[in-house]
Design a protein that fits this description.
seven-stranded mixed beta sheet; Metallo-beta-lactamase, Chain A; 9 helices; alpha+beta; 16 strands; homodimer
């Protein structure tokens, strides 16, 4: 009998495993069922009152932890947090999850993902929004509104298909007025302090060039689509916006990037992700948002939470902890 | 602007929401996209070395917390733990997740789910193994081995289809020898101390009646299928078994029911679920298993963890905490 003792158990398993591999090598082939080699479709439905919402996975990127991924702590601390979250050694994983809201009268896509081919080294790992919409039975032509939380590439670039055409040809594209004013300014672009910011300005120009007439600017604190209210959560970008989706007495908070990956920035809410335009302001917003969400036991959806990206957040001393929602097999 | 202040935010949302509902009622109907009304397929793939594993969701049951659901604490404590895990007020949710292991030569299904129609009040909520296998492209006829961890109905009854025929007609059905000896004993059945136990004995008789020739009894500490080793984890039932699935230097531990739902019994490892045959023994096994799994940072799969039911477990003082694995979009 294998004892429940770590040395015995794992030694036993290793020995058995080696024997098994050796034997498999010399066993005549069975009529074995081929492995599938692909993941299940990345969509997940949940109700908010009478609204049917769908978390759409755009994929995830896993890459070596950059030196200044967390701008205001030593790399070792960031690596230790990633390791504590069981990320691959030395790496960081960032998932991306747009949300589709079917209000009954409007089909609204909140954020659009990375688009296809925009991250060459991980091509195929991201830019999966269109294929996961298709898996969910959604025709991109049926989307009425693409509601962008802010103008970073992982949120905006999916508005274009691989050939550069508009992926959602019948959709109004809504952008936060404050973010538009910031990123579309030639003066701001000329003062970009580093390559990352230069690239962000150039990306806005490229992504929205020629489609200005499709773009509507929205303000904060407004019902920007039926039951969907824009919430001012600036810092990550100047016009960064969250949304309350409300129907029939139920509300979920679509936080957008109030926190980037929760394993680092919700556990350590005072850490600043490299992509923040104004780290201290983002930090202040994060505390306000999550003190409120935790007190209200609000359901929170995070663009960078692991799929299906729906959960609750609770306080844990000076930190916060994400409790992912239970998978509902029947909605 | 809606301020990030809970009173203002939620008041604002409620007011906007009411206005929205009122307006939707009087707006001419758009050519709206119908809601889907169904969940995404419940399967999720992960690799263990060269093995392709698939977590298959059999569904989940949500029901009013029974008085003695936790046998050795007051109902209020159990309700508080469920509430802390954001379960519906006064209710408890139990998910069910068989695992499919494609070793390259054998297709092994570990546990088989509730079967269809066995829980009338929640018909449709469970018994989803066959439909989720189909969604994953798996023909039940291609399964070589159904490997049962123990002989409780939620693990065994899926071996039969709705019409009572064998759902996996070409499979060897493997049962733990110790559990078989216990549950198949007429003498034990005649001494069943309560209705629950009487039902369990009767269910074994009904489920396995007439198919004894398909049933193989396995021992603990053996390689019961290629790379799959049985681990003695008694208590929940006398022959309750976990499995180490090992390939190419990687191992996952399929814990079966070492803990029932982690929100109650991993957070509170000394609590005894009503279904335990020997609660104190199950408690002892749980501590041994999870002290080992936490120390080894082992990947653990739990039949009653929320889908996709794969994670890591860490110590948290005298408690344990499950950290669900990140969803991998590409396997």
């Amino acid at each position: 009998m294998i004892e429940l003792n770590r040395r015995h158990l794992l030694a036993g398993v290793a020995a058995v495993g080696a024997a098994s591999v050796a034997r498999l090598g010399t066993t005549p082939a069975h009529a074995a069922v081929p492995q599938a080699g692909t993941q299940a479709p990345g969509f997940y439905r949940y109700k908010v009152g009478s609204y049917e919402c769908t978390s759409i996975n755009d994929g995830a990127r896993t890459f070596p932890m950059p030196d200044k991924f967390v701008a205001n702590v030593a790399k070792e601390e960031a690596l230790a947090a990633a390791d504590a979250a069981y990320m691959p050694k030395g790496m960081v994983t960032i998932p991306f999850n747009p949300q589709l809201i079917n209000t009954g009268s409007k089909l609204v896509l909140i954020d659009s993902g990375n688009g296809i081919g925009n991250f060459e080294p991980s091509k195929g790992a991201v830019g999966r929004t269109l294929q996961n919409l298709a898996a969910a039975g959604v025709d991109p032509k049926s989307i009425d509104i693409v509601l962008l939380s802010h103008l970073h590439p992982d949120h905006t670039n999916g508005i274009r298909a691989a050939d550069g055409s508009i992926a959602f040809p019948n959709a109004e594209i809504m952008v936060p007025a404050v973010d538009w004013a910031f990123w579309a300014s030639e003066e701001n672009a000329s003062k970009a302090p580093n390559d990352m910011m230069k690239n962000y300005f150039a990306n806005v120009k490229k992504t929205f060039g020629g489609i200005e007439s499709k773009v509507t600017k929205y303000e904060w604190g407004k019902e920007v689509a039926p039951g969907i209210t824009s919430i001012a959560t600036p810092g990550h970008t100047p016009g960064h916006t969250s949304f309350a989706v409300a129907s029939g007495g139920s509300t979920v908070l679509v936080q957008s990037d109030v926190t980037n990956i929760p394993e680092l920035f919700l556990r350590n809410p005072d850490w600043h992700v490299a992509f923040d335009v104004d780290g201290p302001k983002a930090q202040e917003t994060r505390h306000k948002f999550y003190d409120m969400a935790a007190a209200e036991k609000a359901t929170v959806v995070g663009f960078h939470f692991t799929f299906p990206s729906v959960g609750h957040v609770e306080k844990d001393g000076a930190k916060y902890r994400l409790i992912p929602s239970a998978w509902n097999p029947t909605i």
